[in-house]
Write a structure and sequence with these properties.
This is Glycerophosphodiester phosphodiesterase. This protein has ten helices and eleven strands. It is of the alpha/beta class.
Length: about 240
């Protein structure tokens, strides 16, 4: 049986370019990523921006607080709006994974998905159970992944944590599970697959591990080293039986 290679998801900061920049997004697209992942936060005046952390270096070289500053106050630092990059994603035909860092990002991100007619090219991640339920309640038409709760795997036996994670994904009507690759094993992937929950693994930089996860059947691999994952894909496809 021919196995499909996982989707290649370009992490923010692809190929050592600064994260949350146009060049990082462009290089991911140019190298052949299927999905572009970006972290989303919201300014004081409700503008969705690309940022992992709430602190951002301002023009005065001081740490600014994104949630407490307007976009106009932050614009000179190079902070990108989500709206700045969505036309690029739309034109490329790629998918965008919007990793929501705060609940407040749900509304502006959803509005932009609709503005650019990206419902078939976008989904939410960054959603543990409460945020996933909130997103489902407010915007049930926008797909979302459940982010695994690492604490479950620290406090429960592995199988119990796995079962609970998949049950939470179903309860929040998530289409799949987003999991730190260090928590992943083949049992998890097979269990989730039986429930029709594709598994998205993050963030994998080692080529051997990329190949292993592909063999196990993950649906997507997130990496900063898109070039390496493309090489693994090419080698993987050569190993598949011809029909």
């Amino acid at each position: 049986m021919t196995r499909r290679f996982p989707l290649i998801t370009a992490h923010a900061g692809s190929m050592n370019f600064p994260a949350h920049t146009l060049r990082s997004i462009e290089i991911g697209i140019e190298l052949g990523a299927d999905v572009i992942e970006e972290d989303i936060r919201v300014t004081k005046d409700g503008v969705a921006v690309l940022a992992h952390d709430n602190e951002w270096l301002t023009g005065e070289r001081l740490n600014g607080n994104i949630a407490e500053m307007t976009y106009a106050e932050l614009k000179s630092t190079g902070l990108l709006r989500l709206e700045d990059i969505l036309p690029i994603v739309l034109a490329s035909g790629k998918i965008i994974n919007l990793d929501l860092k705060v609940d407040a990002a749900i509304e502006p991100a959803a509005a932009l998905i609709r503005k650019f007619d990206l419902s078939q090219q976008a989904f939410f991640s960054g959603c543990e159970l409460e945020r996933a339920v909130l997103a489902e309640k407010r915007h049930p038409d926008i797909r979302r992944l459940l982010n695994t709760d690492v604490e479950l795997f620290k406090t429960l036996p592995y199988r119990e944590a796995m079962v609970q994670t998949c049950a939470d994904a179903q309860a929040a009507s998530c289409f799949g599970v987003n999991i730190f690759h260090g928590l992943l094993n083949q049992e998890f992937i097979e269990f989730a697959a039986a429930l029709e929950l594709p598994v998205y693994a993050w963030t994998v930089e080692d080529e051997g591990m990329m190949h292993q996860y592909a063999e196990w059947g993950v649906h997507s691999i997130t990496t900063r080293n898109v070039e390496a994952l493309v090489r693994v894909k090419q080698a993987f496809q050569l190993q598949q039986p011809t029909v």
